[in-house]
Amino acid sequence: NLLGRCLSCEAWRPRPEHYQFGVEQDFGSEYDLLWDRIPKQGRVLALRNQSYLHWRYRLHPRVHYQIATLRHGGTLTGYLVFHTAGNAGVVDDFLVLEREAQGPLIRHFLEHIRQAQLAADIYVRFNSASALALPWSAFGFFSRPDFQRVMFLPTVGSDMDRAFMSARDWLVTAGDKDV
Questions:
Q1: 7-25 burial, b if ≥16 CB within 10 A, otherwise e?
Q2: Please, are residues 54 and 26 in contact by the beta-carbon 8 Å criterion?
Q3: What would the pLDDT profile of 70-92 be if each residue is shown by its tens digit?
Q4: What pTM does this model have?
């Protein structure tokens, strides 16, 4: 949508040059390093290490997923998993270590989708109150009511009361929906 793109921060913010963007087909060992660096204390966050991501997305029998990556100084600082379905691009998962890298990851992803003409529409599903969520609204996206339910069973004896109280401590994406 032209109006949304004009109002999007990609139209008026300079393009950050110190990040390297790429599109990959598989998850290497650097995803374990990224996962290890993500703060998890007091958060409800599904496993996102290399072996899980490889199993969840690369080995999927029916959907071909692609991985948009963002690096800073050659080190993986974030990723976004997506697939196309007809004329739609669907963002299935994302994780970013540095808050300042969130915007550049979305910007590079949108540029890639447009330049490669992969999709006319893009859909993203996640709990928007999460402190780990990407700032999609700054890029012209808007939220719709979501009625999906999530069930979480903490380990017996764990101290998870605080995590249940605040949606800011949860990150649930479309990729988590059937696992």
A1: ebebeeeeeeeebbbeeee
A2: yes
A3: 999 999 999 999 999 999 999 99
A4: 0.82
CA–CA distance, 9 with 7 (Å, rounded to integer):
7
Amino acid present at 55: W
Answer left, alpha or beta for residue 125, where phi above 0 means left and psi between -120 and 50 means alpha. Answer: beta
d(CA 126, CA 172): 5
* Token reading at 5: 């793109």
Annotate the chain with three-state secondary structure. CHHHHHHCHHHHCCCCCCEEEEEECCCCCHHHHHHHHCCCCCCEECCCCHHHHHHHHHCCCCCCCEEEEEEECCEEEEEEEEEEECCEEEEEEEEECCHHHHHHHHHHHHHHHHHCCCCCEEEECECCCCCCCCCHHHHCCCCCCCCCCCCCCCCCCCCCHHHHHCHHHEECEHHHCCC
Measured in degrees and rounded to the nearest 5, phi and psi for residue 175 equal: -65, -15
